[in-house]
Amino acid sequence: MIQLVCFLVFVEAVVAFLVMVKIGPLRELVMNGLDQVEMRKGTVLTSAGTMSVIFFFSWVSIVKIQNKGAKIGTMTPMDQVLWRTHLLEASLMGFSLYLGFLIDLMHHHLQRLINLRKNGGSKKKGSRKARRREVAAKRKRR
């Protein structure tokens, strides 16, 4: 389980890096891939929800092991190993959920920025034409 979550964190970190830094056509490729994933939002939300539940129960296990150690006074070596394993799993899953949220947020803002740039250019052209018309109308009045 830890290897899988480590791989997931690594892949998400690479995707986040490619979304943040414009490296040739790679950003467009990643943005198109994220668009495709966003179309199937239900599967993404289901997997994020499943990871959140596992994350929560890992933290519950950590608290139980800590409480057991507090009652006895010391933690057994087996409890220490379980505690460290659950802590590592929970940390990796939390970081993975955070990176997923970060990637989704960056994708959303980049989409808005791209749309504003596309539409903003046409608005500027339209406003320039309107200004030219106003200047021409003022000249005709004189």
Structure description:
The protein is 92% helix and 0% strand. With 142 residues, it is mainly α. The protein has one domain. The N and C termini lie far apart (80 Å).
Label this structure with key terms.
142 residues, elongated, mainly alpha, 4 helices, 0% strand, single chain
Structural class: mainly alpha
Reported for the largest beta sheet, the result is:
none
> Which stretches are poorly predicted, pLDDT < 50 over at least 5 residues?
none
pLDDT averaged residue by residue: 84
Number of helical elements: 4
Report, as a whole number of angstroms, the end-to-end distance: 80 Å
Write the layout of secondary structure elements.
Layout lengths: L1 H19 L5 H14 L1 H32 L4 H65 L1
Helix pairs in contact: 1-2, 1-4, 3-4
